[in-house]
Amino acid sequence: MAEDEQSLITDEHRALIGVPGEPSTVVVREADAKRMRDVLGDTDPRWADGTGMAPPYVIAFFGGRGGGGGRATPQLLPGAILTQQEWKFSRPFKIGEELKAVGQVFDIRERLGGRYGHSVLVTTSTDYYDADGQHVAASLLTITQFDPARAGRGGSE
Fold first, then answer.
1. What are the Cα distances from residue 146, in Å, to 9, 10, 55, 140?
2. Res. 103: pLDDT tops 80
3. Where does the pLDDT of residue 107 fall: very low under 50, low under 70, confident under 90, or very high at 90 and above?
4. Domain residues for 73?
5. How far apart are CA 144 and CA 142, in angstroms?
6. Whole-prediction pTM value?
7. Is residue 41 included in any domain, yes or no?
8. Mean pLDDT of 73-80
9. What span, in angstroms and rounded, lies between the C-alpha atoms of 64 and 27?
């Protein structure tokens, strides 16, 4: 079997799947919400300064917390690119509120071939809870890891 065809995913990596990390705290900051609105050119009055509400896409500012809540995302290859992001909301974000982020590795899989050659796809999920323990939002991120030195050698997409 050629080197590129051997799995990079070990039993240690598989053991991370579904294990929640320690909670971390994120704060919904007005300055972050304003920056995101300005970048996107969003003039929706629901998220305007002084309303106390943040646009839902401010969740992107939290960044998925690297697998969430202190759980490190396994890095199997040196290059990485965000290839999927999903959000789910139970209610709107409030400016100034502190949320607990709890994340986990949701899935790890490999892909042979394509633009990035042998790549590893790591999907993480992060759930956000308010001070009362109520679910506020969730994010699901897939990061495709690859070796830039080998990109383009994997054949067609």
1. 13, 16, 33, 20
2. yes
3. very high
4. 11-28+64-146
5. 6
6. 0.84
7. no
8. 92
9. 13
Domain membership flag for residue 98: yes
Whether 150 has a pLDDT exceeding 90, the answer reads: no
- Residue 65: pLDDT above 70? no
Structurally, the chain folds into a number of domains equal to: 1
> In the chain, what's the furthest Cα-to-Cα distance?
62
C-alpha pair distances (Å), 4 with each of 113, 132, 143, 144: 9, 48, 19, 16
Domain-located, residue 40? no
H or E, element range at 32: helix 30-40
Q: How far apart are CA 115 and CA 156, in angstroms?
A: 7
C-alpha radius of gyration, the chain, whole number:
18
Burial 4-15 (b: 16+ CB within 10 A, else e): eeeebeeeebee
Assign residue 81 the CATH number of its domain.
3.10.129.10
Q: How far apart are CA 79 and CA 57, in angstroms?
A: 26
Distance between CA atoms of residues 134 and 66, nearest Å: 22
Per-residue pLDDT at 148: 87
Report the C-alpha gap between 138 and 122 in whole angstroms: 17
pLDDT at 153: 56
C-alpha angle 111/7/149, rounded to 5°?
65
